Amino acid sequence: MAGRIPQTFIDDLLARVDIVDVIDSRVKLKKTGRNYSACCPFHKEKTPSFSVSPDKQFYYCFGCGASGNAIGFVMDFDHLDFPAAVDNLAGTQGMEVPREQSSQHSRRPDYSELYELMIRASEYYQEQLKTAPDAPRVINYLKQRGLDGQTCKQFGIGFAPPGWDNLQNLLATSDEKEQQLINTGMLVENEESKNRYDRFRDRVMFPIRDSRGRIIAFGGRVLGDAKPKYLNSPESPIFHKGRELYGLYEAKKSNRSLERILVVEGYMDVVALSQLGINNAVATLGTATTLEHMQRLFKTVPEVVFCFDGDDAGRRAAWRALESTLPNMQDGRQARFLFLPQGEDPDSMVRQEGSEQFLQRIQDQALSLDTFLFRELEDGLDLQTMDGRARLTKLAEPYLGKLPDGIFRQLLLQKLSGLTGLETSRLEAHMSSEPEAKPATDHTTQDKHHSQFESYNHAGHSYTEHYTEHYPDMHVSGYPDHYPDSHHDNYTTDSFSYSQSMKQGAYNPHKSKGFFDKRAKNFNPVLEKTQIKVGRSLYAIRHLLCNPQLAADVKCVDTLAEDNDADTELLVELLKTLKQQPKLATSALIAQWYGTEKGKRLQQVATLELGHEPDDGEFWEAIKRISDKVADLKHQQASNKISSTLANRKPNQLDERQRSEIEEWLKNHKARLGISTTGASQDKTKVSKK
């Protein structure tokens, strides 16, 4: 492990370097009196406000307040940490950076020979892209992906030709070199036969660089249909995939002042975006976004936008990224999430609509962190009920608990307060009194779960529990509880609080794999288990299927038919059918809609487990609430019509029909308020006289 850089060396380095030379090599300076000036490289401006003092060896911007010495400038401009900036400046002076020795730590191992091997491997791959017999095939593939020679050169893209020992024969010139190639993962040793061979064969090669530009690993993509499609170098003494980001070095190199970084899923996305002028994209290397990734990103820029495919894996990756982002959300930082249309990725999307339109898509459609967080936590909860709001509070606690103290955390607490009706002081007091429990993200915890959503645990409860606990009755065997996206327009739900089923406590988090399981690899939107949000109409249908004889006593079928809801329409059709055929069995009833979307919906609802015996009172409560909803809507429509009438006419201009409508509305309105209507005739006189 490296020791500290002695302060005496830092003082000596600053005495040797000239800050004017350091800055002028990066930003063109102009002599202005005793100092030098330029437009500030750290913010946009037209009039120079950036001043460099050779006497004080100090720079200061009067516009944005940026200031510091030569080391500070290199850190900010080159996006380097302190040791790397010192190394950079020391290299310009021919100085070797010493490290203080510690009795507890030894000097950092010397990996210079490993870095040298990686450089030679990269040079070999780039040469093969030009000279290998298969080079025309590879170049044609890259052209089909829209990449030109300049972009390939910028990212050092090459080609590992077919064959088992091409790189081995070139670089393994001794037993020591061969072992180093194994240590870096460039060669693979068979455990049984001990044979050694090239890891990368017949693949397009992407060198992976660290923050200092050193090649530390490679990623390879097949040209055909072989598996795996993408292959990364394994962990090595110089490569730790949980820390590194593909394209970060290139992004810093291409942008004088980075303000935003776009995180995508693959290195082909990074290269494709750069080809079309979007030079601020990076990608993780076969892992979920980690805390270390986010620390590195936020040290570089104040805003991170995650851009994921609109498929199942993309949405899971987005949630993992959110979990790693929360602890790093200090005030002034921003994280957003963009989901592309199903089947699209950044590579295909930017080619379809161009870079300007793609950037506009980010601007218009990327969700803020708080929007994405609460949208996922709220999904399936009925916030019109107290238990729904309490459940949201419980779910949000461990996520808000990961946030550092500051204004952003207070704003999220305010948002939760607005959703739940609880004062922020109450929320903070409750959270501080709860034992610390955070969403599990470590691999040990993840391995205990067998769903596609194993890493989304919070406060001891997974998203599986979030849905099965809040909707205990909604478990389905073999049928979906929730229509796929293509059916949302036809089947909307109106949340209904069914207290009896809640009181039964029929919660079983193991009966369903929860919300994100529908994004599994082999998801079938018709047969896969997901979670249904039960509204009043569905709840009435479920009870009606259990007790078909209830239909005979429903007198308000025509009123129910006025509810503009697809599930209520299905309920009305069931009621009419059962009134005509009161002895019809449930199975025969469902069979009448077999093969249709309504038939699937009925099968789905029929398999719901209520967790308790059907209660006729709950059925009638649901019917009443649907009727009340229709009555409320009609009353509101009448109110709007009367308001419009009175806004356009004086009272003495009303005709008899309009007076009658107003009198009827007044009568109904008083009845709704519980006011006696015995004076209705007096009202009629008043209306006619006005």
Automatic annotation (TrEMBL):
<keyword id="KW-0639">Primosome</keyword>
<dbReference type="InterPro" id="IPR034151">
    <property type="entry name" value="TOPRIM_DnaG_bac"/>
</dbReference>
<dbReference type="GO" id="GO:0003677">
    <property type="term" value="F:DNA binding"/>
</dbReference>
<dbReference type="InterPro" id="IPR006295">
    <property type="entry name" value="DNA_primase_DnaG"/>
</dbReference>
<feature type="region of interest" description="Disordered">
    <location>
        <begin position="638"/>
        <end position="659"/>
    </location>
</feature>
<dbReference type="InterPro" id="IPR030846">
    <property type="entry name" value="DnaG_bac"/>
</dbReference>
<dbReference type="Pfam" id="PF08278">
    <property type="entry name" value="DnaG_DnaB_bind"/>
</dbReference>
<dbReference type="Pfam" id="PF01807">
    <property type="entry name" value="Zn_ribbon_DnaG"/>
</dbReference>
<dbReference type="InterPro" id="IPR013173">
    <property type="entry name" value="DNA_primase_DnaG_DnaB-bd_dom"/>
</dbReference>
<comment type="similarity">
    <text>Belongs to the DnaG primase family.</text>
</comment>
<dbReference type="GO" id="GO:0006269">
    <property type="term" value="P:DNA replication, synthesis of primer"/>
</dbReference>
<dbReference type="GO" id="GO:1990077">
    <property type="term" value="C:primosome complex"/>
</dbReference>
<comment type="function">
    <text>RNA polymerase that catalyzes the synthesis of short RNA molecules used as primers for DNA polymerase during DNA replication.</text>
</comment>
<feature type="region of interest" description="Disordered">
    <location>
        <begin position="426"/>
        <end position="451"/>
    </location>
</feature>
<dbReference type="Pfam" id="PF10410">
    <property type="entry name" value="DnaB_bind"/>
</dbReference>
<keyword id="KW-0235">DNA replication</keyword>
<keyword id="KW-0238">DNA-binding</keyword>
<dbReference type="InterPro" id="IPR050219">
    <property type="entry name" value="DnaG_primase"/>
</dbReference>
<dbReference type="InterPro" id="IPR013264">
    <property type="entry name" value="DNAG_N"/>
</dbReference>
<keyword id="KW-0240">DNA-directed RNA polymerase</keyword>
<dbReference type="InterPro" id="IPR019475">
    <property type="entry name" value="DNA_primase_DnaB-bd"/>
</dbReference>
<dbReference type="Pfam" id="PF08275">
    <property type="entry name" value="DNAG_N"/>
</dbReference>
<feature type="compositionally biased region" description="Polar residues">
    <location>
        <begin position="638"/>
        <end position="651"/>
    </location>
</feature>
<keyword id="KW-0863">Zinc-finger</keyword>
<dbReference type="InterPro" id="IPR036977">
    <property type="entry name" value="DNA_primase_Znf_CHC2"/>
</dbReference>
<dbReference type="InterPro" id="IPR006171">
    <property type="entry name" value="TOPRIM_dom"/>
</dbReference>
<feature type="zinc finger region" description="CHC2-type">
    <location>
        <begin position="40"/>
        <end position="64"/>
    </location>
</feature>
<keyword id="KW-0548">Nucleotidyltransferase</keyword>
<keyword id="KW-0862">Zinc</keyword>
<keyword id="KW-0808">Transferase</keyword>
<dbReference type="InterPro" id="IPR037068">
    <property type="entry name" value="DNA_primase_core_N_sf"/>
</dbReference>
<dbReference type="GO" id="GO:0000428">
    <property type="term" value="C:DNA-directed RNA polymerase complex"/>
</dbReference>
<dbReference type="Pfam" id="PF13662">
    <property type="entry name" value="Toprim_4"/>
</dbReference>
<dbReference type="InterPro" id="IPR002694">
    <property type="entry name" value="Znf_CHC2"/>
</dbReference>
<keyword id="KW-0460">Magnesium</keyword>
<keyword id="KW-0479">Metal-binding</keyword>
<keyword id="KW-0804">Transcription</keyword>
<feature type="domain" description="Toprim">
    <location>
        <begin position="259"/>
        <end position="341"/>
    </location>
</feature>
<dbReference type="GO" id="GO:0003899">
    <property type="term" value="F:DNA-directed RNA polymerase activity"/>
</dbReference>
<dbReference type="InterPro" id="IPR016136">
    <property type="entry name" value="DNA_helicase_N/primase_C"/>
</dbReference>
<dbReference type="GO" id="GO:0008270">
    <property type="term" value="F:zinc ion binding"/>
</dbReference>
<dbReference type="GO" id="GO:0005737">
    <property type="term" value="C:cytoplasm"/>
</dbReference>
